Amino acid sequence: MATASFVASADRNALVFQAEGDWLLATAAELDRRLRALDLPSGREVVLDLAGVGRLDTAGAWLLKRTDNELAARGNVVSLANVRENLAPLVDQVWAHSAAPLPHPIPPHHTLAGFVARVGEVSVQLIRRAYSITGFFGLVTLTFLDLVRHPRRLRLPALVAQMEQVGVDAMPIVGLLSFLIGVVFAYQGADQLRRFGAEIYTVNLLGIAILRELGVLLTAIIIAGRSGSAFTAQLGTMQVNEEIDALRTLGLNPIEVLVVPRVLGLVLTLPLLVVYADFMGMLGGCLMSWASLGILIPTFLDQLHSAIGLWTFWVGVIKAPFFAAIIALIGCYEGFNVARSADSVGRLTTQSVVESIFLVIVADSAFSIMFSLLKI
Amino acid sequence: MSDQPDNIVIRAHGVVNRFGAQTVHDGIDLEVRRGEVLGIVGGSGTGKSVLLRTLIGLQRPVAGQIEVLGRDILHLREAEQRELEQHFGVLFQDGALFSSLTVAQNIEVPLREHSNLQESLMAEIAATKIAMVGLPEEAGDKYPSQLSGGMRKRSGLARSLALDPEILFLDEPTAGLDPIAAAAFDRLIGDLKAGLGLTVVMATHDLDTLFAICDRVAVLVDKKIRVGTLAEHLQDPHPWIRAYFHGPRGRAALNGSDPQHSAIDLPSESLAGLA
């Protein structure tokens, strides 16, 4: 077992500190405690005697050097003695390169001034972000308008690939979840309405809720989690690999090559996905109404027809391209913001999903207010 | 220096590495002596990094035996493996620093895991290592993304030295550094080797490094390995080895150093301090 000790003895004029045993990482914690407990002299002549040191590593050598420093700081004249030949190179290394860690200033979070400063900082950051997202939106819009004038520059294969990835590949999960929401809604609605003998209004509830709000909102949230995060991760990894810089140096516009196909792809695909989700939701509701209320399918369709107008359907679908633009723009924007580290990709991917879901719901409420003003 | 068993820290015998149908190593025998700097060279795709990874235990060979510090690393239990790894330091090509931690925190990771030191002492040791690899003090508080390539390498080296390893593995330590930084890095490895009594195994392309600090060189050719001093390799008639050491770059590096000196196995008394 490694041991270490430290003996202080007075020898006529000079004090002698004898280090003994193994001064290693394994014994450093114990040595550190003992050294800190020592009452150091001042203004004396001190000899650090290493004759008894068996094994030594950097941690042990640093402890010796630190003791040396502390003694010197108290006005002692310190000298090393009996450094064995095989330890000398290591001792020289540490003596030449010792450094105390920089003091870490304590962050002034807990004072009132610190709190106010922090609130100010966060506000300024928010405004900067809003400014920069708006700038990005403008840049994408300009690039898009440019592409409208030169449609041949639009990258059709990339666009189609994006539409497949965000649309076709998302159909199983969007379909299943919408179907299940329809089932749950029909079941819960029927349960409540049965008390009033108004079971048939379950159909109205389903029609309005799914077509107006749930279909589009649910699909947008799934796509934000599925494709918005993928956009950030893809572009972020490209940023880490300097691929985006490479595109620029090759005379290609990264917005045109990477962002426009993604935004356009999602804007074109999300409304279609919403129609599909609406259908699956209604299908689930219809089957559940039949199973739990005994409402036959023709009756269901008749009731649905009388309950909703065409606008109920359009009110839902019309929101989809806007939500799609929000999700795709935020996803790409955060991807471009990635710094060159693995950590940053993960952080910004999370941030992109949270932000786009947040903004989608805010936009949805804005639509609600607008539609109610327009009396739709 | 004698080849007593105790003097061999790594012994590989008949190592075969294969990826699918492609055989990279076909029966490699290698002995690394305590206290030496061994350079591994070879053309692109000859498996320098693969060999290094095999010796560290990150890549399991298809066949062969590997003994590191007297233990068979292919048949170790999990706990023994962890224990053995504390005697290794590994510097990956781009430093492989944890990007969510500062340089000082990166160095503290192994200390935290394998010792019970107080925070303040850990910070002091990290600062010492940072100074030993020639980084400025402020580097400790920086994140890897804020550092240049050379500084990342030095930080990676500081982390690999955190536990005072006996064997240091370096993967292309000077790749991507400017010649001045590369020469400084070579000197640093030499100094640390002398000061800490390290055994160093490095994969490298850098002829200057080979001439400056390597005691012996292992050349990977034709899926086999040829180990020898530089002086021996300079006599080797194998066409690739001739082209490598006698090409324009090889000759330039040779003229810039004293091959007789580099080719001599350096004594390793400095080791006793660690062992």
Written description of the protein model:
The complex is a heterodimer of chains A (about 375) and B (about 280). Chain A is built from 12 helices and 4 strands; from the N terminus they run ββαβαβαααααααααα. In chain A, strands 1-2-3-4 form a 4-stranded mixed β-sheet. In chain A, helix 2 (about 60-75) links the parallel strand 3 (about 45-55) and strand 4 (about 75-80). The model of chain A has no long low-confidence stretch (mean pLDDT about 85). Chain A has 2 domains: about 5-95, 2-Layer Sandwich (Transcription Regulator spoIIAA), CATH 3.30.750; about 155-375, no CATH class. Chain A has helices spanning about 25-35, 60-75, 90-95, 110-150, 155-165, 170-195, 200-240, 245-250, 255-295, 295-305, 310-335, 340-375; strands at about 5-10, 15-25, 45-55, 75-80. Chain A starts with a strand and ends with a helix. Chain B is α/β, with parallel strands linked by helices. Chain B has a single domain (about 35-60, about 75-260), classed as P-loop containing nucleotide triphosphate hydrolases (Rossmann fold), CATH 3.40.50.300. Helices cover about 40% and strands about 25% of the residues of chain B. Chain B has 11 helices and 10 strands. In chain B, about 45% of the residues are buried. At the A-B interface, helix 1, helix 2, helix 3 and helix 12 of A face helix 3, helix 4 and helix 6 of B.
The helix-and-strand class of chain B reads alpha/beta
The total of helices of chain B stands at: 11
Taken together, the total number of domains of chain A comes to 2
Which pair of chains forms the biggest interface, and how many residues does each contribute? A-B, 36 and 43 residues
The percent range for strand residues of chain A is 5-15%
* Order of secondary-structure elements of chain B: EEEHEEHEHHHEHEHEEHHHH
Q: What fraction, in percent, of the residue positions of chain B are helical?
A: 25-40%
The dominant shape of chain A is: elongated
**Helix vs. strand class of chain A:** alpha/beta
Order of helices and strands of chain A: EEHEHEHHHHHHHHHH
Profile the largest sheet of chain A: 4 strands, mixed
Query: Beta-strand percentage of chain B?
Result: 15-25%
> Radius of gyration of chain A in whole Å, from Cα?
35 Å
Classified in CATH, the superfamily of chain B is P-loop containing nucleotide triphosphate hydrolases
Our count of helices of chain A gives: 12
Mean pLDDT of chain A: 87
